[in-house]
Amino acid sequence: MAKSDGTAASLSSTLISNKTFPSWGNIIRLLPTGTVFMFQFLNPILTSNGHCGLIGMVLTSILIGICGFSCAFACFTDSYRDGDGMVHYGITTATGLWPSPCSNSINLSKYKLRVGDFVHAFFSVMVFAVLSMLDSYTMLCFHRPFFESTQKVLLVVLPSVIGSVSCAIFMVFPNTRHGIGYHPTSPDGDIDHS
């Protein structure tokens, strides 16, 4: 009887994961790829696969903070192509893109800082926070007793809620920036900021 309970729990956990991961695949597109890769690569090392001590907790907290900052910072960057077709990156400001070394033929005033940039930064950090806190190694490291009792609820509810709210907000404030960590959306690599 105990074996069948373990099998049922394993099957339930597998079904929850099968529903959760595809939705995370859609939500994670809102984050810079390098930041997510860095977190996924370093988190198992810093958390000792979920069995971390105090130093592991501190290092993992620092990693989450750096990656969160990176998600927010990337929302304030943009890129343009110069006359030779070279891609240049810069930081958006109230007057345009900075630094702008080869911008003689490009009007950088259309790259001004917008309210939508702050909204994107906030929700990108929120999506990353949920991603990082629901990572199994992070959960085991920080919330071991809490993790076992609420695992199913968190894995099903939190990604759906944050994802739905973020997607709705991103529809109201569409992002046309192609900054650091984001690839151009068109297949030929053109960067359009209309």
Automatic annotation (TrEMBL):
Keyword Transmembrane helix recorded: yes
Pfam families: DUF679 (PF05078)
Subcellular location: Membrane
Membrane topology: Multi-pass membrane protein
Chief localisation class: membrane
Gene Ontology BP annotations: endomembrane system organization
Domain of life: Eukaryota
Residue ranges crossing the lipid bilayer per the database entry: 21-42, 54-76, 115-134, 154-173
Annotated keywords: Membrane, Transmembrane, Transmembrane helix
Gene Ontology annotations for the cellular component aspect, listed alphabetically: cytoplasm; membrane
Sequence similarity: Belongs to the plant DMP1 protein family.
The protein, known as: DUF679 domain membrane protein 2, Arabidopsis thaliana DUF679 domain membrane protein 2
